[in-house]
Amino acid sequence: MRNLWKNGRIETKMKNQTPIIIMNFSGIYKEEDFYKGDFWKGKDFRKDKEENTGENMEGKGIFWMELQDIPGTNCYCDEEAIAEINKKTKHLTTAGIHFIDSGNYHYMTRLWLAKMEVPFALLVFDNHTDMQPPAFGGLLSCGGWIAAALEELEDLCHVILIGPDEAAYEQVDEGLKEKVSFLSREQLQKMEDEEIGYYIRTALNEKCGWEKQDGRLSLYISIDKDVLCPSDAQTTWSQGDMRLDTLLSCVQTVRECAKECQAVIAGVDICGEADMESIHENQANDLANQKLLKAFLGSREYAGSETVKERDCKE
Q1: DSSP for the chain?
Q2: What is the pLDDT of residues 258-297, one digit of tens each?
C-alpha cells in the first residue's frame, strides 16, 4: 500500500492539492452532493467497502472517514470514543478542510487542534459560545470544546469568536475571556460586510501578529453553520442571522489577509449539518458546503462541477 502521509502531511497525486476530509458520524453526508463532480472522476467512494484510512481516496483529494460505528460520540465524546477517533486520524495533521457533520460533533475541532505543534489562534463562527462548564464528569462536549481547548492546549494563544449573542457570552468564565476577542450577534446585526471584514482584519493583525515580520500565529478556522440564518442553513441547533454571502465575504477577507501577510492558515473545519430525520431540509446546507469549499480552495483549485442547485432563499 502506498503511503499517503509524508513528512507529516497528506501527499496526493495532484500538486498543491488541499486534502478534504469528510467525517461521517451520522450518515448525513451520504445524502449530500457538494463533494461530487467531474473533479472526482465519478467515483462513488461512499460505497467503498475497504477500511478507509485514506488510501482508497488516493488521487481524488478527498478522504472519507467512517465513524458511524463508534459509540459515545453524539454531543458528548467519552474517552473510549476519543481513543477510537484518534486512532483513525493518527496519520493526519490539521492541514486540509474537515467536514465534521452536525454541530453535535463540533468537539472534533478540539481533537484536530491537539495536533497543532506551533503557537496558533482560533477563528470561530458559531451561534453559540461553546464555552459551557464541563458536565458529566468533564466529558468533552459540543457545547464546551472551546473552553476545553483554552484550558488544555498551551499553544492556543487566542480565540476570535464571531456570532453568539451577548447574553450567552456573559455566562462565560472571566478567566477564559482574557484570551478571547468577541463579536456578538447584536453587533453583527448593525454591521455591513465591509465593517465585519475590517474587524476580522484588525483582530488578525493585533491578536495574531499578522502584520509583524516574525512571530505570526498560525490560524485554524472553525465554522458552525448555525451562525447562518435559517434561509441559508438548516441545523440541529438554534441559529443566528448571518447570511451565507456575509460568511463567504469573511472567508475571503481571511484568505486575502493571509496572502498579504504571508501568514499560515493551518486548517479548517465546517459543521452544522441537519439531522438525518430532517434530510428534506438539507439542501441549503449542501449548497452552503459547496460555496464554502469553493471559497476556501479558490476558483483555481476548485475543479468540481456545480452539482448543487441554487435555491431561492427567503427572509
Answers
A1: ----EETTEE--SSTTPPPEEEEESSSGGGG--TT-SGGGTT--GGG--S--SSGGGTTTSEEEEE-TT-SS-SSEE-HHHHHHHHHHTTT--S-SEEE--SGGGTTHHHHHHTT--S-EEEEEE-SS---PPP-TTT-EETTTHHHHHHHH-TTEEEEEEES--HHHHHTS-HHHHTTEEEE-HHHHHH--HHHHHHHHHHHHHHHS-TTSSS-PPEEEEEEEGGGB-TTT---SS----B-HHHHHHHHHHHHHHHHHHT--EEEEEEE-PPPGGGGGG-HHHHHHHHHHHHHHH-TTT------S-------
A2: 999 999 999 999 999 998 887 667 889 999 999 999 999 8
Q: Which residue has the cell 462513488?
A: 44
